[in-house]
Amino acid sequence: MKLLEEKIKKDGRVINDNVLKVDSFLNHQIDPQLMNEIGKEFASSFAAEGITKIVTIESSGIAPAVMAGLYMNVPVIFARKRKSITLTDDLLTASVHSFTKNETNELAIAGKYLNENDKVLIIDDFLANGEAALALVKMVKQANASVAGIGIVIEKSFQPGAHKLKEQGLRVESLARIASLSNGEVTFITEKMEELV
Ligand code: G4P
């Protein structure tokens, strides 16, 4: 997605060879116009899939997921990372380890929001090692619902997440795919590079 790549080039900051900071439009301050375009793009990519629900994870997945939900006219559910006093019965759960943050979180979704008739689109802000996405897939399957695909805002293609998900037969659509963050620079995957893979 051209607009997103331009935004990353302009406002993203490469922290090191593995981490891109996008706090000014995605992870802290949010750019609503950009989220709107992102939502539209996900809706058009998955238009043929008969999606009934979107599932994401708090907190940074919520903004792009809500905009996609608006365009697809379906509800958006976010997995909670912390225990909630109101989230008690019939839970779908999974634990997710973040290599970036070196912490493990217990995720939970109330079972009543997903059922066996649901076709779910999973959306998240970053795809790195794929741990978060795989945990969401596991929770959707606990509900006997099906995963129609995974929509990612920024994929770090040099990390193993996308490969792990595709290996499981899952459809992954990433709006920006980063080949490298070396030398303080963002290099995107180009169509030419894809032909070589
Ligand atoms: P994984 O889920 O693909 O395995 O990723 P990983 O454990 O490495 O990432 C854990 C957290 O770090 C996630 O956010 C993910 O979005 C974020 N993250 C991973 N790589 C980057 C990066 O290069 N830049 C930024 N800005 N974030 C990255 P989270 O803990 O769920 O945080 P949030 O959603 O509450 O913001």
Automatic annotation (TrEMBL):
Keywords: Cytoplasm, Glycosyltransferase, Purine salvage, Transferase. Xanthine binds at residues 20, 27, 156. Its main location: cytoplasm. It catalyses: XMP + diphosphate = xanthine + 5-phospho-alpha-D-ribose 1-diphosphate. 5-phospho-alpha-D-ribose 1-diphosphate binds at residues 128-132. InterPro entries: PRTase-like, PRTase_dom, Pur/Pyrimidine_PRTase, Xanthine_PRibTrfase. Pathway: Purine metabolism; XMP biosynthesis via salvage pathway; XMP from xanthine: step 1/1. The keyword Glycosyltransferase applies. It comes from the Bacteria. Its EC number is 2.4.2.22. GO terms for molecular function: xanthine phosphoribosyltransferase activity. It is found in: Cytoplasm. Belongs to the purine/pyrimidine phosphoribosyltransferase family. Xpt subfamily. Homodimer. Converts the preformed base xanthine, a product of nucleic acid breakdown, to xanthosine 5'-monophosphate (XMP), so it can be reused for RNA or DNA synthesis. This is Xanthine phosphoribosyltransferase.
